[in-house]
Amino acid sequence: MSAKIAIVQHKPVFNNLKESMAKAKTIITEAAKNKAQVIAFGECWLSGYPAWLDFCPEAGFWNHEPIKNIWADMYENSVEIGGKEVKLLRYWAKKYKVVLVIGMNEVVKKGKGNGTIYNTILTIGENGKLLNHHRKLMPTYTEKLVHGMGDGAGLNAVDTSVGRIGSLICWEHWMPLTRQVMHDEGEDIHFALWPAVKEAHEIASRQYAFEGRCFVFSIGQILQVADLPKGLKLPKSLKGKPKTYVLNGGSCVVGPDGKFLLPPQYEKEETIYFDLPPLKILIKERMNLAVSGHYQRSDVFKLKVNKKRVK
């Protein structure tokens, strides 16, 4: 049995949760009409990946008022797991009988607020159930200015009607033990969420697919200069170029042999549809490599994982 996967390579409305949710509803409704069974959004899609960290020269200034204002906007437009936005996402998944995989900036405000923004992925089943809640383990480089460290509670794959699904965020794909934990979860389909799928990210995605003998959907973001937060200085190379791509997408699909089934799609703001081949292909590829089976030496190596949620 094959499945249709929708890769969302649309921009959110940056630092505007209400309008981003309205856009998500339109995208989900359209993808469901096109018979998509899984709809996958990128890293921090609600409400925008903070790419300004890498492009605006004032991003690292200590106690800089414009930076604090942008972070406050980012916080106020982040998602609470028990809030109305997640309830809506669960409702739409159930209404359209689709699996949703969506990246977001997550906060904990009610009751036990901790003032931290997490880089998070939610996986929601066709029945509207929240199947997995993963927080990125380690913010990458400049991300440490805006995101807190996650935990191992979300290092899970989950069963769906199209196969067993797992996901990781960005440079988690270069953490060998994290990869092994997810391979041990028995993924059929893996969603790799990136700011944009650069050459090194393509390599990591192909490596992951080959190593895990799974399909990898690598999802990149679209961001242009005009989308960067107001109030920050731009480098000379970007001034006066509102349509220049800061993040240029690059979403792609990799098969279990590490080869592209869909090559990277750059500078396209659209929903990309892909018909997944039958999962039997994965079984055949696991004959000669199964890193959680006959290619794993459990008598030599022991991997212990702390899956406790940090509040």
Task: Describe the secondary-structure layout.
Layout: E1 3-9, H1 17-33, E2 38-40, H2 52-55, H3 65-76, H4 84-96, E3 99-107, E4 117-124, E5 130-135, E6 158-160, E7 163-169, H5 176-184, E8 189-193, H6 199-212, E9 215-219, E10 222-224, E11 245-254, E12 260-266, E13 270-276, H7 280-285
Parallel strand pairs: 1-2, 2-3, 7-8, 8-9
Antiparallel strand pairs: 1-13, 3-4, 4-5, 6-7, 9-11, 10-11, 11-12
Helix pairs in contact: 1-4
Rg: 19 Å
CATH topology: Nitrilase/N-carbamoyl-D-aminoacid amidohydrolase
Q: Helix and strand string, N-terminal first?
A: EHEHHHEEEEEHEHEEEEEH
Count of extended strands: 13
Mean pLDDT: 95
State the fourth-level CATH superfamily: Carbon-nitrogen hydrolase
The number of distinct structural domains comes to 1
Percent helix = 10-25%
Share of residues in strands: 25-35%
Low-confidence stretches: none
**Briefly, what CATH class?**
Alpha Beta
Globally, the shape reads globular
Given helix and strand content, the structural type is: alpha/beta
